[in-house]
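This protein record is not my work; I was only asked to verify it. Would you go through it and say whether the fold makes sense for this chain? Here is the record exactly as it was handed to me.
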Amino acid sequence: MLNGERIDPVPVWMMRQAGRHLPEYRETRAKARDFLDFCYTPALAAEATLQPVRRYGMDGAILFADILLILDAMGRNVRFLEGEGPRVDPATKASDLANVPMDKILSHLAPVGETVERVRSALDTSTTLIGFCGSPWTVGVYAIEGRGGTDKADSRLFGYQHPAELDGMLDHLVEASARYLKMQADAGADALMLFESWAEGLPEDAFDRWVIGPTAKLVQRVRALGVKQPILGFPRGAGMLVVDYAERTGVNAVGLDTAIPLKRINQMLPKGLPVQGNLDPMRLVVGGKDTERRVHDIIASLKDRPHIFNLGHGVTPEVPIANVEAVLKAIRSAS
């Protein structure tokens, strides 16, 4: 499907499908010392990856990991604080992300490659295994600000005041991310996804320099390393700039967030480009007939192009399992 063919019924997986809404996930999570230990223990991370496929019959399995592992491998002291989220030792210059040699970065991330191998060997060949990393700008925001959930003011200010330093940071992240993605591809990932979680709120010129440019470099570098697997980009919050993103980054497919108007964007995106999305996760919490009608509307709006059904963001912890099952039934009956 990511190569441009329309499939009916539309394939489906859900961002954060492995997570706290599943009791089996919570049981597995309790076996790890902390979240990083969870991500770096291949047996546990592989189990978390496989759980939603077993329970729901998802067409895709998304690798269980975190976009900040690469900063942890770069020595930025990543930690996850209960009730507060991730924290990172802030970087103030490009060289802060170049202190750790590339071979040590990849060695640090080697457990992720083992997780991919374990999952691929356990999955049926009909289920797509999706590897991923954070896109350079999004990971760079964490590196500069030391945390997520901000309005990115500090990162934007840094970029305007020190453009060469930010460009250097993003270049370091491009190279490390490309090597990391190649590791996942070599280990058995069928497709690769770039999460641009902090794309929202950027003016057009900044989006061009900090999102489109580095993403295009990353895709080019991954291809130069010999990776053939399709690449899906998800610039969450990009609004109508998603069209420029789709046309200029080289990704093979684009993820659409909750706020994207489907009928309009369907007319603007390149013909035949696969898209993914975009049910509001809050509808998954509520469920019911209105949610099922929205499922049908999304599929109908994208009926003339390749489409992977997904959410516009991730599954939240309070989502009832029965609602996921009902949405999957609606997806499969609508096509």
In short: The chain has a mean pLDDT of 96. The CA atoms of residues 3 and 296 lie 24 Å apart. The longest helix spans residues 163-187.
